[in-house]
């Protein structure tokens, strides 16, 4: 339901035509970049987690991952199905926040690449803060490991010319 709600909000904010543009199929010929962004997201996630742990900031696990350890195969597949739609919702929510900031910064005369970078970093940190309750208010983990790990997802939107780039890299 979260994913459908975010599609509705994105459509209400930008209109049906723009929504179709945001969710159009990804650009072809970008497989190498797609794989690079996927690998980069894992490197950032595991690298930042290892760095924070070595500095005395241990991470906490997400309650959902703990509760799925004893799931049957069927229940695990159902969980993954709902998780996929939840991640679509997360990507659309961040897009709802990123696009206006990006446009506003470009309108202020800031270079497009810098406007995107600043808006993406800002909304990635907000994304991390959304996860605070699930990770027992572990600020370092949520801002650095979870928040900044999604930078490749945001860049995937731009590079693949579709929100589907970020959605698939996120999953």
Q: What would the keywords be for this entry?
A:
single chain, globular, 77% helix, 8 helices, 171 residues, mainly alpha
General description of the model:
77% of the residues lie in helices and 0% in strands. It has eight helices and no strands. The protein is globular, with a radius of gyration of 17 Å. The two termini are 17 Å apart.
Name the structural class.
mainly alpha
Order of helices and strands: HHHHHHHH
Helix fraction, binned, reads over 70%
Profile the largest sheet: none
The total count of strands amounts to 0
Give the helices and strands, then pairings.
Elements: H1 2-22, H2 31-54, H3 63-67, H4 73-107, H5 112-130, H6 139-147, H7 151-160, H8 163-170
What's the short story on this structure?
The chain has 171 residues and is mostly helical. It has helices at 2-22, 31-54, 63-67, 73-107, 112-130, 139-147, 151-160, 163-170.
């Amino acid at each position: 339901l979260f994913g459908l709600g975010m599609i509705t909000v994105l459509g209400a904010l930008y209109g049906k035509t723009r929504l179709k543009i945001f969710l159009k199929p990804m650009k072809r010929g970008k497989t190498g970049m797609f794989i690079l962004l996927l690998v980069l997201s894992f490197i950032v996630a595991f690298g930042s987690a290892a760095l924070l742990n070595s500095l005395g900031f241990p991470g906490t696990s997400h309650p959902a991952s703990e509760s799925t350890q004893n799931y049957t195969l069927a229940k695990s597949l159902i969980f993954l199905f709902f998780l996929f739609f939840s991640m679509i919702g997360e990507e659309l929510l961040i897009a709802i926040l990123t696009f206006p900031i990006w446009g506003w910064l470009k309108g202020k005369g800031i270079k497009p690449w810098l406007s995107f970078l600043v808006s993406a970093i800002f909304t990635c940190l907000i994304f991390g803060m959304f996860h605070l309750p699930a990770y027992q208010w572990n600020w370092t983990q949520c801002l650095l490991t979870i928040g900044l790990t999604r930078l490749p997802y945001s860049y995937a939107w731009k590079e693949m010319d579709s929100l589907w780039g970020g959605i698939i890299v996120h999953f």
